[in-house]
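Lab channel / #folding
Pinned by the channel admin:
"Please post every new chain as: sequence first, then the structure tokens as a reply. Keep commentary short and put observations after the output so the thread stays searchable."

First post following the new format, from NK:
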Amino acid sequence: MSSMDSKTSFLTDRFDEALVYANHLHAKQVRKRSQVPYFAHLLGVTSLVLEDGGGEDEAIAALLHDAVEDQGGLDTLEDIRQRYGTGVAEIVDAVTDAYTDPKPPWRARKEKYIASIRTASPQALRVSLADKVYNARATLRDIRREGETGWERFNGGKEGTLWYYRQLIKEFGKHGSRDLLQELVRIVDQLEKVSRNQGW
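Reply from TO:
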């Protein structure tokens, strides 16, 4: 499996506008049980997408990948389509696992998301993998800092979260970017080691 090919291009005014739009949507949102602006996560995922060779549509989708789930559901998806086109909207839709508030039960959502990887476009796979890499890094950092209590912030708890990452790796292993997948495997291996109280 080789890294997905994507023509590198300069970012345009569309990206600039998407930065402002994403910050506006998530301006009052912070990362779980922290005071870190949620926008930091969006920037981190976007950076990973660009470093992996993603183009502008993928970068914009990375900025907006949580907008539908967290900030307005299908109305927001339609707004993204009008602003940035069908290509961006399709990527955002593909990486969204909930459209309503409250969200459906955690396990069912994750099982559905895992299954969706099998038919996702290369562009959506890149954004999804970048998101999972960023989240896995943050999880590892939290568990190293807080120990077992750090798992309490995750809806799936320790066992569910580790199961989710391993299932994602299994499916991404059949598709997706080699570099991002290797990074996800490395981080999840460390996370499992730390979760067994090793390597502190």
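NK: Residues 132 and 142 are 15 Å apart (CA to CA).
TO: also worth noting, The chain has ten helices and no strands.
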